[in-house]
């Protein structure tokens, strides 16, 4: 993979983050949304309301069938406007369309005793693309609130996905009746929003709460890549991570023998908090995981998120067996605090901000410009490879970098909480367990300057116009 910036050229990290920040990122996201919403001038606009009055349909599914017939007939992509009301449906979308509710709390899909609230089904309809879903509350489904399989250019934005995954039995754990193409979701019922085999899609400004987990990207049915997960509130999902990128065994229906991969996705400007607290070891703020041999979750970017008070570390990267690919992931510009310790073979000695664990060598990892506090260990590593840790504010006042394995950590050019560097009074420390393992000289003598959006107040992580002078 060609990285957005080489590991040896740290200044490009700052430029990359600035280009992805604030006023630059938001128009990019908005442009992506409108690209999905704007349709052909000849497309029809259909309507749905609970009474089926004024020429509207009474069921969303009926309007979807009409829009699908229009598309099959002449290729037009219809818009379906759904009025406020409660719709007791499992809406299955097989063709391009825009499904537009009146807003969350108003247009409500109550999928009680049904599989999903909305299923964008490209697995049974190859080539599916250009689907927009916005403006709904989706609740009470047995499995996912929103499930997307094998589709491209999908936009899911401004929805509220709550209280789904009703079939989860956490004591086993199991999820009775979940489709067999979901190869590793029996313990979480697929979470609130699930993308499998999805590419070039946007999940933006949604709320995902009180599901088993928040947002899942997996490769059960195909490669999941080049997606943007931005601006979502993912909170209080008790049994899994807030946002998960996980490579799984391929579903039998695909005919594949090797995992497809979860790669080059961007997780940006989300808040992921209070997830994975009901069961020990249940959920990180953001988790990037490989499961069986040959799985691959690589080249993803986790940038400018708030990750706090989750059951596992703010960011957890796990490669549990040889022959896996968890390389070239970038963890940049996140604010991380108050998360839990990692567990089992990936265990850390206390609450941890970021944990990089790999039986397989994990290469190309860059951890930069994160602000980490209220953790016993800011960054933990255990992999037979080098991990690159630069330009972070390590403010936990305990262990800044803990090398738990046989690899090395290049932890030069970090702020350790005081000008004196690691181990000085009021500074975090370096704690290598196996050999020395951690290079930390030179270090920074003041915090990294904060990149503010226009109008934001200056905050504690602001270095003004001064340049950092590394302590030699």
What does this structure look like?
This protein is mainly β and 472 residues long. The chain has a single domain, classed as Pectate Lyase C-like. 8% of the residues lie in helices and 32% in strands. The protein has 3 helices and 42 strands. It has a 14-stranded parallel sheet, sandwiched between helices. A 12-stranded parallel sheet has the order 4-7-10-15-18-22-26-30-33-36-39-41. An 11-stranded parallel sheet has the order 3-6-9-12-17-21-25-29-32-35-38, with no helix packed on it. It is elongated and about 75 Å long. Mean pLDDT is 89; it is low at 1-16 and 453-472.
Please specify the SSE layout and strand pairing:
Elements lengths: L10 H9 L2 H16 L7 E4 L11 H15 L4 E4 L2 E3 L3 E3 L3 E5 L5 E4 L7 E4 L7 E6 L2 E3 L6 E4 L2 E6 L2 E3 L5 E2 L4 E2 L17 E4 L5 E3 L2 E3 L5 E4 L5 E2 L2 E3 L2 E3 L7 E5 L14 E2 L2 E3 L2 E3 L12 E5 L6 E2 L2 E3 L2 E3 L6 E5 L10 E3 L2 E3 L14 E7 L7 E3 L2 E3 L3 E6 L3 E5 L2 E2 L4 E5 L4 E3 L18 E2 L7 E2 L33
Parallel strand pairs: 1-2, 2-5, 3-6, 4-7, 5-8, 6-9, 7-10, 8-11, 9-12, 10-15, 11-16, 12-17, 15-18, 16-20, 17-21, 18-22, 19-23, 20-24, 21-25, 22-26, 23-27, 24-28, 25-29, 26-30, 28-31, 29-32, 30-33, 31-34, 32-35, 33-36, 34-37, 35-38, 36-39, 37-40, 39-41, 40-42
Antiparallel strand pairs: 13-14
Task: Explain briefly what this protein structure is.
This protein is mostly beta strands. The strands form 5 sheets. Strands 1-2-5-8-11-16-20-24-28-31-34-37-40-42 form a 14-stranded parallel β-sheet, sandwiched between helices.
């Amino acid at each position: 993979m060609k990285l957005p910036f080489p590991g040896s050229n740290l200044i490009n990290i700052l430029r990359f983050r600035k280009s992805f920040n604030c006023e630059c990122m938001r128009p990019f996201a908005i442009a992506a949304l409108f690209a999905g919403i704007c349709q052909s001038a000849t497309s029809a606009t259909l309507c749905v309301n609970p009474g089926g009055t004024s020429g509207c349909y009474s069921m969303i599914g009926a309007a979807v069938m009409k829009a699908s017939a229009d598309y099959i007939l002449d290729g037009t992509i219809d818009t379906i406007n759904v009025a406020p009301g409660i719709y007791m449906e499992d809406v299955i979308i097989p063709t391009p369309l825009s499904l537009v509710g009146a807003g969350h709390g108003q247009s409500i899909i109550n999928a009680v005793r049904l599989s999903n609230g909305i299923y964008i089904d490209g697995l049974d309809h190859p080539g599916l693309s250009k689907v927009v879903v916005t403006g709904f509350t989706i609740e009470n489904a047995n499995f996912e609130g929103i499930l997307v399989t094998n589709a491209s250019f999908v936009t899911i934005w401004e929805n509220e996905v709550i209280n789904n995954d009703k079939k989860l039995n956490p004591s086993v754990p199991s999820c009775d009746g979940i489709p067999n193409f979901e190869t590793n979701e029996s313990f979480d019922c697929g979470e609130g929003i699930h993308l499998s085999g999805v590419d070039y899609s946007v999940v933006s400004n949604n709320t995902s709460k009180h599901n088993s987990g928040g947002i899942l990207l997996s490769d059960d049915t195909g490669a999941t890549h080049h997606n943007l997960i931005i601006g979502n509130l993912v909170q209080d999902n008790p049994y899994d991570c807030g946002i998960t990128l996980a490579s799984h065994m391929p579903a039998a229906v695909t005919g594949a023998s090797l995992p497809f991969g979860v790669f080059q996705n961007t997780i940006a400007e989300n808040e992921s908090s209070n997830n994975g607290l009901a069961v020990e070891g249940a959920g990180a703020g953001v988790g990037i995981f490989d499961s069986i041999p040959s799985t691959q979750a690589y080249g993803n970017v986790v940038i400018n998120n708030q990750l706090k008070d989750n059951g596992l570390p703010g960011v957890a990267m796990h490669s549990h067996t040889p022959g896996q690919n968890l390389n070239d992931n970038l963890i940049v510009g996140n604010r991380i605090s108050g998360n839990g310790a990692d567990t089992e073979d990936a265990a850390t000695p206390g609450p941890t901000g970021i944990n990089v664990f790999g039986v397989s060598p994990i290469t190309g990892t860059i951890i930069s410009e994160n602000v980490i506090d209220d953790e016993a260990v800011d960054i933990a590593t255990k992999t037979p490879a080098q991990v690159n840790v630069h330009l972070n504010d390590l403010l936990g006042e305990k262990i800044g970098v803990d090398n738990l394995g046989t690899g090395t950590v290049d932890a030069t050019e970090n702020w350790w909480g005081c000008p004196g560097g690691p181990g000085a009074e009021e500074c975090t420390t370096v704690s290598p367990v196996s050999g020395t393992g951690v290079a930390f000289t030179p270090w920074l003598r003041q915090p990294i300057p904060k990149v503010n959006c226009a109008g934001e107040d200056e905050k504690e992580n602001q270095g003004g116009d001064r340049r950092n002078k590394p302590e030699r």
